[in-house]
Amino acid sequence: MNKDHRRPLGGPAIRLYPRHLDLDGRLAQTMIVTGYPHDVHAGWADPLLTYPGHVDIAVHVVPVPGQLAAHRLRRRRARLESAWRTDAARGGLEDPLRAAAAEDAALLAERVAGGEARLFRLAVYLTVHAATPEELDAEVRRLSALAGSILVDLAPATYRPLAGWIATLPLGTDPVEAARTMDTDAVAALMPLSSPDLAADLGETTVVYGENVHSGGLVAWDWFNGDLDNGNAVIVILARSGNGKFYLAKLELLRALYMGVRASVIDPTDEYAALADAVGGRRVRLGLPDGRLNPFDLPDTGEQAFTTRILFLHTLVSVMVGALDAAESATLDRAVLATYAERGITRGPATWNRTPPILADLVATLRGTDDEADHAGTAHLLADKLAPFTDGSHRGLFDGLSTATLTSHLTVISLRHLPDELRTTGLLMALDALWSQVRDSAHRQPRLITIDEGWSLLRDAVGAKYLFNFAKNARRHWAGLTLVTQDVADLLATDLGRAVAANAATQILLRQAPQNLDAVCESFHLSHGERQIVATAERGSALLTSGHHRAVLRALASPEEHRLITTDPAELARMDKEDQ
């Protein structure tokens, strides 16, 4: 008989193996929960029920009739009492486990008789899906390890893979019949208690993002929640173009201002200009005379401020001219120290309030290095590399002392007036200036720094390392970081980019491009259902994830907020006409 004729019409081809089955090339193995912890609390099984892999979980609950429940409890108590009496008659020691079981049975019988509890037959099955046997084995091991961490025992449905798979289908049937008897409290504690609403404790930096798509409630989230599994106060907002990431980022920023948070934005395209003007914020336009930031500026305080400033100048020059070798790095270090010394600035904090040098002074120092001290010509070569930034087409960013201040409740640093070749350099300088503000211990308050299209900094290895360190250390200074990007592939293309994204406390994922789905799901450990959400989300809808917290939200703004944050050209044109 032809094998093709054996396949049922319209159904999958199923091949059975001792522990798993093959569903048209996809493998599935069912694990049975055979052991439960003795003492549990509400939501104790959440780590298992929210496992990020492709796992189908079925919980079968069947009530036991009251008369049958009483009969079974009497029989169990009789067996336990008989065993205890037998051991006592033989002079054996009392088994503490048997004594605890007898006490539990007596207490449960009393509660059932008084109508305080009921008995149920409970069975829990987990079907793991994978593409290859190796992936299936690895996924089963990870799931078993997670179950073991919460004192749950798993056993494979050996020689019953088809029955196990059917038990986890939405059919309401249990052909495996591996149930345990439990009371009402135990069953209730196992259930996914929550509504789809977030359940973390909220604090003074809580932001309301919008409506919960599943429950209709509000999604309120504290980006600096100390109870989160991940301590980094970093939010990553990822989306393909045109799906509302700027809208959501501006809404978060505006509502953070409501809560007294001091906010700063690094804006490459002046997207936040109208918002800054409306709330009385300050705009700093890098590349123009009134928006200059001198990288040689020193803070007034800080034990290591001078050393930290020199190290940053190494980072900045590396981004400007490319990676430095050992000789160039040593030459630069000597030149920076000499440049500061010419202005009377040394490692002593008493000299830090003097007028700092500028980049042109550093280039002059490099050119003034005599041939004996620079026999390889390293200083002059480095000066030539820096010349375009002091005397050439790029001088606007470094041509003088600082003219911009970053002390407003909302500061928007615009990169729009910089050429593309200087965007990464400008972004790094802006981030450094904001970091100096964050570390100012004399003015402690919650701060939020939003970096729009931060992937451009992550493309550079030196800049990516700086941003990674910023993200790791922001929390200790009561600061949060929001990274917004539509170039998901570029963000996840480097190790440091993936580290920044994966170590963020919170990820907000709007609709993703099909070519980025695999990378996003792998980086953020999304389940199969969550993959479908980010693949099909409507404009303005997003999946918010943070540890085991999950919520699908739809951004909601008041009419006044909407006027400030919308980027729809048609709406903007209509509003301009209305204002005329």
Automatic annotation (TrEMBL):
InterPro entries: P-loop_NTPase, P-loop_TraG, T4SS_component. Residues 445-541 form the TraG P-loop domain. Gene3D superfamilies: 1.10.8.730, P-loop containing nucleotide triphosphate hydrolases. This is Conjugal transfer protein TraC. It comes from Nocardiopsis sinuspersici.
